[in-house]
Write a structure and sequence with these properties.
α3 packs antiparallel against α4 and α4 runs antiparallel to α7. Helix content is about 70%, strand content about 0%. It is mainly α. It has one domain. It starts with a helix and ends with a strand. A two-stranded parallel ribbon has the order 1-2.
Length: about 170
């Protein structure tokens, strides 16, 4: 977890003033959600690094796992203190902002946004069976790990991303 904090803090320090302002605007709009989102960021990064040490920070299958876990954890944590609808909106706002603050190629951005949405959808599908106050990280890790069995490699923006996790060939 310490390594995750160091990597994330270096990334934040590298932001331009305008990008830092966008991040602060999100924080001050929803400070409690932002703390939960930061914790989810660190947790998702640490879990992904442990499970996929070579692809969690690249565009491989570990990255698909990390993005889906990240968005679902933000939603899960925020839904414990607010409505699921507000938590979902914040999760997507935070993960979409990440793509603006740390730009990638168009294909990488589309892939990351798609995997973020898959994580949100997964949480929402699981929610009726588990009260949101009792939702555990391990539930999400297990379900997303299973979804990796049907993950697809994409190569072009025109590829059909469907309802599966997607990644770029490493």
């Amino acid at each position: 977890m310490r390594n995750s904090f160091i990597i994330i803090s270096k990334a934040i320090r590298g932001l331009s003033v305008s990008k830092l302002f966008q991040l602060l605007q999100l924080f001050f709009t929803h400070p409690l959600f932002s703390f939960m989102g930061f914790w989810a960021t660190m947790k998702a990064f640490a879990i992904a690094q442990k499970k996929f040490p070579t692809t969690a920070s690249s565009n491989g299958i570990g990255n698909a796992f990390r993005h889906a876990l990240w968005s679902s954890l933000i939603l899960s944590y925020c839904a414990k203190i607010s409505s699921v609808e507000k938590a979902k909106k914040y999760s997507l706002d935070m993960t979409n902002l990440h793509e603006e603050l740390f730009p990638n190629s168009d294909l990488e951005k589309k892939m990351d946004l798609h995997n973020n949405q898959i994580g949100v959808n997964l949480f929402l599908q699981m929610l009726p069976g588990i009260h949101r106050q009792f939702f555990e990280t391990s539930f999400l890790v297990e379900e997303i790990s299973q979804k990796l069995n049907s993950a697809k490699i994409v190569e072009h923006l025109s590829d059909d991303f469907g309802v599966e996790l997607v990644y770029l060939e490493a």
